[in-house]
Amino acid sequence: MKFIAEIDIMPHKELLDPQGKAVVNNIGHLDLNRVTDVRIGRHVTMTLEAASEPEARQTVETACQKLLANLIVETFSYELNKG
Amino acid sequence: MKFIAEIDIMPHKELLDPQGKAVVNNIGHLDLNRVTDVRIGRHVTMTLEAASEPEARQTVETACQKLLANLIVETFSYELNKG
C-alpha cells in the first residue's frame, strides 16, 4: 500500500529560534504588528510503500530519528494518510 | 483574540527538490528502501492577535506572500486555530 506522511520538524519550545525571532522583529515593516511569535522548522512530505500502517509508521519514525530530525534540538510530529 | 497558524511552505510540485532527492537517494543506508519520494519545505508556527478570523487569515496570507514564501518556486497552505 502507498502511504503519504506529512512530517513537521520543529525546534524545541525551550530553545531560542533565531530565524523565527528575525521574522517577528521585521514583520512590522509589513504593517503586521500583531504577530507575536513565529517559529520556523521543516516540513517533509514522504511517499512510501508499506504492507500495513504500523510498518509505515515504523519507517517514518526511523527516518525521522536517524536522518531527518536532530532530536537534541528538534521534535517531530507527523500525520500518515493512505496515498 | 489569539490565533495560531500552522503554515506549510513547499517547493512547487513541478520543480526538482534537490534536498528531498538527496534524502531519497541516501535513505537506503537505513534499510528504508521503500521510501519512494521525499519533498522538503518549511513549517512555520505563527501566533497572532486579531479581531476576527477573516482578519487573522488576511494577516497570515500577507505575511506568506510578502515575507515567508517565494511564490515563484514555492506554494503555501495553512490551518488557523484559536489559541
Structure description:
- 2 copies of one chain form a homodimer.
- By secondary structure, chain A is of the alpha+beta class.
- Chain A has a single domain (2-82), classed as Mth169, Chain: A (2-Layer Sandwich), CATH 3.30.1280.10.
- Helix content of chain A is 30%, strand content 41%.
- The first copy, chain A, has helices spanning 18-26, 53-68, and strands at 2-11, 35-49, 74-82.
- A 3-stranded antiparallel beta sheet of chain A has the order 2-1-3.
- The first copy, chain A, is elongated, with a radius of gyration of 16 Å.
- The first copy, chain A, starts with a strand and ends with a strand.
- The mean pLDDT of chain A is 94.
- β2 (35-49) of chain A pairs antiparallel with β2 (35-49) of chain B.
How would you summarize what this structure contains?
2 copies of one chain form a homodimer. Chain A is α+β, with helices and mostly antiparallel strands and 83 residues long.
Topology:
2 copies of one chain form a homodimer.
Chain A: E1 2-11, H1 18-26, E2 35-49, H2 53-68, E3 74-82
Antiparallel strand pairs in A: 1-2, 1-3
